[in-house]
């Protein structure tokens, strides 16, 4: 029997249809140009992944790989329920799987956004000891982030958003152990920056992952521009309370 039933659906929200349409939108933002970056969606045990080395804005549902988390006993020999006739599995696969297995995420997005890369370069320029964590507070868009793993609600305007940074490796899959280490050290983060490379962002579902990825890109761009203007990312500003709430 053909394995195409995993990817054949009229529903635009089916992961095999949603990954190509999301990637086409991400391409216009410069997040997945030159075949870099990608997106993966988990539906219970099934994981849908964009292939490696393809034009991300031109992908079709027939390009999508499908695997079952429960069948991945040997990490060196990954078992796919469906593989496209041509193409190769994404090098991001073990990183996406880390977000699904360690955080129970429903979606993971990887971008090569200029703003993410620039933020890692600005941190690098601060020198050793000051280059491993991006921190920003007192910006409205911080409210786009969840409080953390298994926590209810979102961060507030005055809260500090912290995103760890890991060093890049020659091969994308070799990032996995460092990404997992960053997840352990920062259990509440929904994103990890990769130096001179980009960012991985995940969420409980597609909506949350996309919202956080967009909010983060907005904040990265803002952070780069703040730096150019000599404005610090962390500020100590008074809390304004309306008269009716005092
Ligand atoms: Zn990448």
From TrEMBL:
Belongs to the aldolase class II family. MtnB subfamily. This is Methylthioribulose-1-phosphate dehydratase. Binds 1 zinc ion per subunit. It holds the Pfam family Aldolase_II. The active site is at residue 140. It is found in: Cytoplasm. GO terms for molecular function: methylthioribulose 1-phosphate dehydratase activity; zinc ion binding. Catalyzes the dehydration of methylthioribulose-1-phosphate (MTRu-1-P) into 2,3-diketo-5-methylthiopentyl-1-phosphate (DK-MTP-1-P). Its EC number is 4.2.1.109. HAMAP family: Salvage_MtnB_euk. It catalyses: 5-(methylsulfanyl)-D-ribulose 1-phosphate = 5-methylsulfanyl-2,3-dioxopentyl phosphate + H2O. The keyword Transport does not apply. Pathway: Amino-acid biosynthesis; L-methionine biosynthesis via salvage pathway; L-methionine from S-methyl-5-thio-alpha-D-ribose 1-phosphate: step 2/6. GO terms for cellular component: cytoplasm. Its cofactor is Zn(2+). PANTHER family: METHYLTHIORIBULOSE-1-PHOSPHATE DEHYDRATASE. The keyword Thylakoid does not apply. The gene is MDE1. SMART domains: Aldolase_II. It comes from the Eukaryota. Zn(2+) binds at residues 110, 112, 197. InterPro entries: Aldolase_II/adducin_N, Aldolase_II/adducin_N_sf, MethylthioRu-1-P_deHdtase_MtnB, Salvage_MtnB_euk. It comes from Daldinia eschscholtzii. GO terms for biological process: L-methionine salvage from methylthioadenosine.
């Amino acid at each position: 029997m053909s394995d195409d039933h995993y990817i054949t659906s009229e529903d635009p929200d089916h992961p095999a249809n949603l990954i190509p349409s999301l990637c086409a939108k991400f391409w216009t933002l410069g997040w997945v140009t030159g075949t870099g970056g990608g997106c993966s969606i988990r539906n219970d045990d099934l994981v849908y992944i964009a292939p490696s080395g393809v034009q991300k804005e031109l992908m079709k549902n027939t390009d999508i790989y499908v695997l079952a988390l429960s069948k991945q006993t040997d990490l060196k020999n990954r078992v796919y329920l469906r593989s496209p006739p041509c193409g190769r599995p994404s090098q991001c696969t073990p990183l996406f799987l880390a977000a699904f297995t360690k955080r129970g995420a429903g979606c993971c997005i990887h971008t090569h956004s200029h703003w993410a890369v620039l933020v890692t370069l600005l941190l690098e320029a601060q020198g050793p000891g000051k280059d491993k964590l991006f921190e920003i507070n007192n910006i409205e868009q911080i409210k786009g982030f969840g409080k953390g793993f298994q926590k209810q609600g979102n961060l507030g305007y005055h809260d500090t958003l912290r995103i760890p940074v890991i060093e890049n490796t020659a091969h994308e899959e070799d990032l996995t152990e460092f990404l997992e280490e960053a997840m352990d050290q920062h259990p509440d983060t929904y994103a990890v920056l990769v130096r001179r490379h980009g960012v991985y962002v995940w969420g409980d579902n597609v909506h949350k992952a996309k919202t956080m990825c967009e909010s983060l890109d907005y904040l990265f761009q803002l952070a780069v521009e703040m730096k150019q203007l000599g404005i610090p990312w962390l500020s100590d500003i008074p809390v304004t309370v309306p008269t009716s709430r005092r």
